[in-house]
Amino acid sequence: MKKIEAIIRKTKFEEVRKALHEADIEFLSWWDVKGQGTARQGLIFRGIAYDVNTIARICISFVVRDINVEKSIQAILKSAYTGESGDGRIFVSTIEQSIRIRTGDKGDESLYNK
């Protein structure tokens, strides 16, 4: 099992969610996050300098069986891509154990996707 986390543009969230659903990933969590990328810039508006280095993004997180890792990554890559700096990142990590609280199912059986 793998945990996939993706930090993406807010404007691409619905496209990514739809693409993951089409890839049979139906259970995921997301939340608003802020971060700082490599770009450094400032904005001056009416004589006041604003720091615009902090970037608002969405972090998506879900756990999948090993057979679904690549199609999940491809769904995110294709739907989140703009070709501009700041498209985001995808992180994949290994999950040692998963247990469904309601049924007690363990391992792959505890996950919703096939």
Q: What does this entry look like structurally?
A:
The protein has 114 residues and is of the alpha+beta class. It has a single domain (2-110), classed as Alpha-Beta Plaits (2-Layer Sandwich), CATH 3.30.70. It has helices at 13-22, 69-80; strands at 2-9, 29-36, 42-45, 48-51, 54-64, 88-94. The strands form two sheets. A four-stranded antiparallel sheet has the order 2-5-1-6, covered by helices on one side. Helix 1 (13-22) packs antiparallel against helix 2. It is elongated and about 60 Å long. The mean pLDDT is 88.
Count up the domains. Answer: 1
**Strand order, largest beta sheet:** 2-5-1-6
Number of helices: 2
Order of helices and strands: EHEEEEHE
Tell me the β content.
35-45%
Sheet of most strands = 4 strands, antiparallel
- Shape, principal axes of CA atoms: elongated
Tell how many strands the DSSP assignment holds: 6
Quickly name the level 1 CATH class: Alpha Beta
CATH architecture, please?
2-Layer Sandwich
Span between N and C termini? 12 Å
Helix content bin: 10-25%
Salient structural properties:
2 helices; 6 strands; two-stranded antiparallel ribbon; elongated; Alpha-Beta Plaits; alpha+beta; 4-stranded antiparallel β-sheet; 19% helix; 114 residues
